[in-house]
Amino acid sequence: MGLLGWRRGRSILHVLALVSVLSLLALRASAASPSKKGGSTILLFLGSDSDDNRDDGNLSDGDDGSSESLQTEVEEAPPEWDEFSDAQDSQRTDEDLDPGSWSQILEQPPNWDTRHKQNISSMCLLFSCMYRHCDVFQCASGIRKMILAVNEEDPGMLSEAIEILRSEADIGNPHAQSTLGFLNWMAIGVPYSDAKAYLYHEFAKEGGNPQSKMALAYRYYRNQEYEKAVKLYSELAAITMASFVSSREGPLLEYVRLNYGLEESKDVLKKFRGEEDDDFQFLEYQARKGHPDFMFQLGVFYYYGLRGVRRDHSKALLWLLKAVEKGESRPFELLGEIYARGYGVERNYTKALEWFKAATARKQHSALNGIGFLYIKGQGVEGKNYTKAREYFQRATEASNVDGFYNLGILYLKGLGVEKDYSRARDLLVDAANKGHLKARYHLAIMLHKGTAGMKKDLAHAAALYKLVAERGPWGRLMRQALEFYIKGHVGKALVLYSRTAELGYEVGQSNAAWLLEKYRVGICIGSSGICKTEERHQRAHNLWRHSSEQGNEHASLLLGDAYYYGRGAAKDLERAGEAYIRAKEKHSSQAMFNLGYMHERGLGLPLDLHLAKRYYDEALEEEPAAFVPVTLALTSLWLRQHYSGSFLVKVIDSLPDAQANLEEWWSNMTVDELDALLVTLLLSLLFVIYVRQRHRHHYAAAAAAAAPPPVLPAQ
Prior knowledge:
The protein is globular. It is an all-alpha fold. The longest helix is centred in the C-terminal third of the chain and has 36 residues, at 672-707. The chain has 35 helices and four strands. The strands form two sheets. Strands 1-2 form a two-stranded antiparallel sheet. Helix 15 (292-304) runs antiparallel to helix 16 (313-325), helix 21 packs antiparallel against helix 22 (422-434) and helix 27 (507-519) runs antiparallel to helix 28. It has helices at 2-32, 72-75, 94-97, 102-107, 109-119, 121-127, 136-151, 155-170, 174-186, 194-206, 210-222, 226-246, 266-269, 278-288, 292-304, 313-325, 332-341, 349-360, 366-377, 386-398, 402-414, 422-434, 438-450, 459-470, 477-487, 491-503, 507-519, 534-550, 554-566, 574-586, 590-602, 610-623, 628-643, 648-669, 672-707; strands at residues 259-260, 263-264, 526-527, 530-531.
């Protein structure tokens, strides 16, 4: 056939194989997707999926216009989103919703290998005729070895891991392709290549890896390609909504920053040690002694999975019931939710209603949503009654309950028990979204995406809302696991996982990864060709700070400005430093205000403007009264510059930064031998001073003794 003919024949086989694989994936997707005809037409929520740690400003109402009919995506929802439906008993888990996640591989490697062997066995058989047999264990072992290599700072082991991943990626393993995309983006073990990272993630996305889809969505969002970003984020947000029901741990509500400024957040970190934390053990001890308040708190910890404690509904039910037996009434609403959902106990709507009514009698307003939802379902009550449901939701709204705003908004949106009113629905959903209600944000994202329910189409805001929802998906477990690794002292593993979340667009992941690179200067950083050099480490941290700054992190903007000002991790650029300080100043950073005053005082990267410099110094003092001393010195320098410009004293003040820089450069360039000689000289000088002082002390003591009168002897 000849070489050319053989290549053409092999290309045809490649195309046929690819078409077959995509067909299988489409069939699996269609089989897994529930039919919308049998889905619930209501999307209501009893619990609270708040996002209080994120501040994206308030949402504004859309322009008033003619109300359009809602699209199918808005009016109908898959049954997985119906909180109390029987669909939540399905076997869909986080592993099904987020296949190939590193979190699964690190937590339970044997289970992951066995489970995913079945998922991709059909794909392996397709390719085995042209390539070697697809080994499902190889990808998992490559990822584990890669993370271990970074933790132990072993470039040789990392090279072995990359070879394993490349061999798997070549035969179409999407999880290996996704990992290689990450390595190329971070320049870990391979040269930095944004183009290769993009291609690997594109291939992995087509193969069904959701984390590559997250990485691409963030890339599009950052580049303001909102149409592409919305397409991916909307799919990921839908997975996130399903994960709220099926997730064993629930959505990750606590984004934990490792640092406060340049220092470690020790007071915060000690609260996330799970059951090993001293405070939690004290709480458990007091609960076992029979204190109802501590019993209730312990039940809440287990129910929501707070502060690193693993979510356990059975334990939550146990402690909540014990608290009730001791006379505690606060668990009533949670117990109603537990029986309605069937968490840790057989579902019982009648008992749920009893607990909800007992809770409302004690002013637990969230329970009003539970009763209203039971009337929507027609379970545990005399039958479906949308009018009564609206009454309960209205009462919850009057009590400023965020779930009440959301639920009532849905009724007006669907026209259940009330006449459809898109304007009223929009106002209620906006109120709920601004209070952090994730499902309200999801509905508003759909409206802005489609331009429905009287809202003007706005892809930029739709993408922002979809992103907030998508970041609460099952891949958020990486953030929890990274924190656990850090607390246990596995800093390298924590850095890898935080870096992965940084690529997925998590601002806290970007900030934490950058801070780890700044704090731990040795032992955890592998570059493109071996151990990270100082400049390479600074450059990687600088890139992460830049991403974090773009998403509104004040501290990141401040450090980004420092990097440009001093030329650390980036080329020295005073103008860009000023821009970064201005972004930090907008977030009320007193240090950024002081820096801007300094730059305006000397005309460094910003116009020379002494009046503006004084205003920035005053603002810094107003924002941070503890900065009285440095601000006072700066204002004194400014006064001297205004009244004695060109004087010797002003020249001395201007020379101080250069003198400091020269001293720092002299110290950093000093060799080991020179440093040893300096230390020996200082030590000898110190000993000489001590010797001279001792001699003087003895001399003065002898002189004092000679000058003293002789003692008077007593008479015989």
